[in-house]
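Posting this for the archive.
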Amino acid sequence: MRSMLFVPGDSPRKFEKASEGKADALIIDLEDSVVTEKKAEARGLTLAMLKGRSKPHQLYVRVNALDTGMTLADLAAVMPGRPDGIVLPKSQGGDDVRQVATWLEALEASAGIAIGTTRIVCVATETAGSIFGLASYKGCSPRLAGLMWGAEDLSASLGATEKASGGVFHSPYRLARDLCLMAAAAADVAPIDTVYTDIDNLAGLEAETRAARRDGFSAKALIHPKHVDIVNAAFEPTDTERKWAEKVIAAFASNPDSGTLRLDGQMIDKPHLRAAKKILGQP
């Protein structure tokens, strides 16, 4: 999964438009893009979107944060639509995942869904306190599928006046990004890069996405359909990377008892083999 496109939960029209694109996943949003007065209506519309799915996209639903008191009602409303996963905003750590997982187990049973099939992706850096909970995601639940870092709400939590300048995040946000990446790697789940908000700056989007892939992120969250193709392309391996990966895998296949090998004048070992398999999408 490379691209996860947010779609307002109260807009079937935008959902239909997003469904025509090539995003790997659509995140139907019940949180920030829906005003309080329309939350109940958006739940019903979201359920209809889930039940009316006709495209191959994975469908996630971003529920409201646990501290709003609306999370369980959101889940109860949408689970009959069998979403592929839930996005939990403002997550503070593994205990939040366990709470949502407990609710999901009961709701899956009620809806006739196989227990454990609904995944959870956490937006894991939206408050100052959440940074200190990043290490707690490891082993918290087999449902956990990804950790996404976010800068918009973190800015408010910190009381900051600016997140970036010249297209470069300031140090608190780089710290949150890097720690989220490491927490996802430690938990063996997908690290997901934050949204790009300068909608018409497509060159900047491509540069930020390539930097994310370079550092280890495997997907990016999006807020506009025209970003999808650029992000998908940026996460695809280059021809040079593919050829290198194929050569590394072939070298170890020919020398199964070797821990280190010489390839094109360079020493390679098992971490290179794991990297090569990741490039080619092999287990």
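The mean pLDDT is 95. The two ends are 15 Å apart (CA to CA).
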